[in-house]
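Deviation from plan, reported transparently: adenosine-5'-diphosphate complex.
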Amino acid sequence: MLGKQGSGKGTQCVRLSHRYVIPHISTGDMLRAEVKSKTPLGLEARRYLDAGDLIPDEVMLAMVASRLDRDDTRTRGFVLDGFPRTVAQADGFEELLKPVEIDLVLNLMIPTELVLARLVSRRVCEDCGAIYSTSTPPKFNWTCDICGGDVIQREDDSEEAIKNRLNLYESATAPLVARYEAMGKLVDVSGVGSPDEVQECLTSVIDAYQHGGGFFPPVPSEEKL
Ligand code: ADP
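Because the crystal trials were delayed, the predicted structure below was used instead.
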């Protein structure tokens, strides 16, 4: 899944992972878990995360390679969230997967004005990563409805780190859109709308892909954002 910060990638990937019973691999969640457990990688990664900078490509590739080595991805596949995020990561990832290729790249599109408002009001569960906002808080005292963990504002959801992440998205990640489009794997889906509406668009694309043996029908989407 491609899409800038605040496009709803995390929310939608969790939903897709439940619906299709496919492991959800979120590099952001994996890194935050390392930071929380104070592993050597976590201690090193923390300064990048807090500033909204990208972790070096080799570190990310090694982390994803070890995750993809687990049996669940071999039997069920995976939905990838937050990776690849640079051209070098995409190159390394393709090598890693060979001879297998990814099926689909879903590009969640949303105007930047909307993501800024979403990110500033975003709150997340420190333990399971469930996503809330100041307008849709958990039921009880900022305690996660799902696991009881503390619901907090991410360090990198400060205004400065958000700007940095959005700039990095444009310079480092956006080129991947053209890459996957040229490979015939990209489908644009509008990220504007309620989570249910966006999910419906995504599942209609995936279902058509599954049933049509790889043929992509035109997807109703907003004009290119
Ligand atoms: P967001 O998409 O809102 O930035 P994520 O949870 O996907 O949130 O990522 C949070 C942070 O984790 C990023 O700002 C970056 O520091 C780090 N990170 C996650 N995935 C990658 C990646 N593929 N390459 C480099 N850094 C990454």
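The mean pLDDT is 91. We consider this an acceptable substitute for the interim report.
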